[in-house]
Amino acid sequence: MHAIPPDALSGGNAFTVDTLDDSMESCLGGPCPVLQTNGELYGYTDGWTDTKFTRSVRATFLPGTTDEIRVAVTVSWKTGSFASRNFTIAENLYRWIEDGSGSPI
């Protein structure tokens, strides 16, 4: 949980996850940037081609605990004249190792 941007975890703001370099960046209260591709992989790498997809991640502590968070990932896109579409998947993650990173932000 320590890698999640602090403003995202405490304020529920959206952030991005780039699995190519294991980074997480806050979207700073605005829309997250579009995903980019090199034709094989997706990420946020300079020089890659923009796609029509935006992926935003939100993580929030469950009420009354700092040992469990709910992570929701939404992918959104617009196709032609249709309204914007999106898909969201969510999962709860539990801190099962007492490592001291559970202190409230």
Describe the overall structure.
With 105 residues, the protein is mainly beta. The protein has one helix at 6-11; strands at 15-18, 23-26, 34-37, 42-43, 49-61, 68-77, 85-94. It has one domain (6-94). The strands form two sheets. Strands 4-3-5-6-7 form a five-stranded antiparallel β-sheet. A two-stranded antiparallel sheet has the order 1-2. The mean pLDDT is 86.
List the helices and strands and how they pair.
Layout: H1 6-11, E1 15-18, E2 23-26, E3 34-37, E4 42-43, E5 49-61, E6 68-77, E7 85-94
Antiparallel strand pairs: 1-2, 3-4, 3-5, 5-6, 6-7
What is the typical, i.e. mean, pLDDT? 86
Question: What is the helix content?
Answer: under 10%
Distance, first to last CA = 11 Å
Strand content: 35-45%
Strand adjacency order, main sheet:
4-3-5-6-7
Which features does this protein show?
single chain, 105 residues, mainly beta, 7 strands, 45% strand, globular
Short synopsis of the structure:
The protein is mostly beta strands. The chain has 1 helix and 7 strands.
